[in-house]
Write a structure and sequence with these properties.
- This protein has about 350 residues and is of the alpha/beta class.
- The protein folds into two domains: about 1-230, Rossmann fold; about 245-335, Alpha-Beta Plaits (2-Layer Sandwich), CATH 3.30.70.260.
- It contains twelve helices and 14 strands.
- A six-stranded mixed sheet has the order 6-7-8-3-9-10, sandwiched between helices.
- The protein is elongated, with a radius of gyration of 24 Å.
- The protein binds adenosine-5'-triphosphate (ATP).
- Adenosine-5'-triphosphate binds near residues 11, 42, 43, 44 and 46.
- Keywords: Amino-acid transport, ATP-binding, Cell membrane, Hydrolase, Membrane, Nucleotide-binding, Translocase, Transport.
- Pfam families: ABC_tran, NIL.
- It comes from Sutcliffiella rhizosphaerae.
- Its EC number is 3.6.3.-.
Length: about 350
């Protein structure tokens, strides 16, 4: 559906050239929810803007839904753009138009007749759950409702690809989750390909099938979300994964325990898929003469399955702890012995 081959984008500035995107190769399949994560300045916006022709690459080929976006021009580019829609962090709604009129806007531009327009708007209002708010103005809506209008408007012309530019960054956590659930719902119902950029790993964890991590204009790591959570390779990816699996309090608790109990071991166990379901702790207590102090545990769902993480303190004779650690490693559970940060 989307393929980028050796794509670079250089901006000429007064202070010299800035390479915002640096030789990127990327393939996104039809019907996939693909996340691109990176800190500010990594090049995410520039990359996503090349997917709808708002920026042209300096080098390389950007191909979306069978069209080479760097080559098509004029009416063909406008047509190609109708297949690719976008939603934004600050919604970009027309403030003097009602919900209904905002959603109808792209249909008017596309020359759709009044009766068909009304029918389509009604259908979209239902799809995004805005029944009863048709005649409200954007200023009378909550952030989540505004983004629902943005989504309905983006879907009006039946695009094949939906691009999401930090679409939930302005929303509170609960509203973020409801918008993410809506995106998963429309991805499934309409087989829509969704590409999103974000700086929040929670967003990736909750809805993406695959993820690419961007740093300094390059993709430094990519893969299935569950795989990246289980085995993050790059330091930056490890930091993003920690956003979801490890809270600051945990790090504090670990520091405290390492000081208080220099004898034992503080370990993090990571469970993936079916290994989440085994009674590992009771087995450990039964089999080994050790004490186990549970510090923090969490199971998160991703689009490809469950992912769990548990921090525990093992106390007892050194040899017995070593035997327990060896046993855990045999159980298809990732294990990391924590040391001071
Ligand atoms: N139009 C432009 N002219 C000059 N430099 C630009 C332009 N757009 C982006 N850049 C530069 O390119 C680099 C990547 O910016 P980009 O906005 O793509 O990153 P980002 O990851 O989306 O960050 P953010 O989340 O802050 O938007 C930055 O160094 C930025 O200053």
């Amino acid at each position: 559906m989307i393929s980028l081959k050796s794509v670079s984008k250089v901006f000429k500035t007064r202070n010299g050239p800035v390479k915002a995107v640096d030789d990127i190769d990327l393939t996104i399949n039809e019907g996939e929810i693909y996340g691109i994560i990176g800190y500010s300045g990594a090049g995410k916006s520039t990359l996503i803007r090349m997917l709808n022709g708002l920026e042209t690459p300096t080098d390389g080929v950007v191909d979306v839904a069978g069209k080479n976006l760097g080559k098509v021009k004029g009416s063909e580019l406008r047509k190609a753009r109708q297949e690719i829609s976008m939603i934004f962090q600050h919604f970009n709604l027309l403030w003097s138009r009602t919900v209904k009129e905002n959603i109808a806007f792209p249909l008017e531009i596309a020359g759709v007749g009044r009766a068909e327009r009304n029918r389509r708007v009604e259908e979209l209002i239902k799809l995004v759950g805005l029944e009863g708010r048709e005649d409200s103005y954007p200023s009378q809506l909550s952030g989540g409702q505004k983004q629902r209008v943005g989504i309905a408007r983006a879907l009006a012309n039946n695009p094949k690809v939906l691009l999401c530019d930090e679409a939930t960054s302005a929303l509170d956590p609960q509203t973020t989750d409801s918008i993410l659930e809506l995106l998963v719902d429309i991805n499934k119902r309409l087989s829509l390909t969704i590409v999103l950029i974000t700086h929040e790993m929670h967003v990736i964890r909750k809805i993406c099938h695959r993820v690419a991590v961007m740093e300094n204009g390059k993709i430094v790591e990519q893969g299935e979300v569950l795989h990246v959570f289980r085995k993050p390779e790059q330091p930056i990816t490890k930091r993003f994964v920690k956003q979801v699996t490890e809270t600051e309090e945990t790090q504090e608790t670990i520091e405290h325990l390492l000081t208080e109990f220099p004898r034992g071991k503080v370990i993090q166990m990571t469970f993936v898929g079916t290994s989440v379901e085994q009674p590992l702790i009771s087995n450990l207590i039964r089999k080994f003469d050790i004490n186990i102090n549970i510090l923090q545990g969490k199971i998160s769902q991703t689009q490809n399955g469950a992912y769990g993480s548990l921090f525990v303190h093992l106390d007892g004779e050194q040899a017995e702890i070593d035997r327990a650690v060896a046993y855990i490693k045999e159980q298809q559970v990732e294990l990391e012995v924590m040391t001071r940060a």
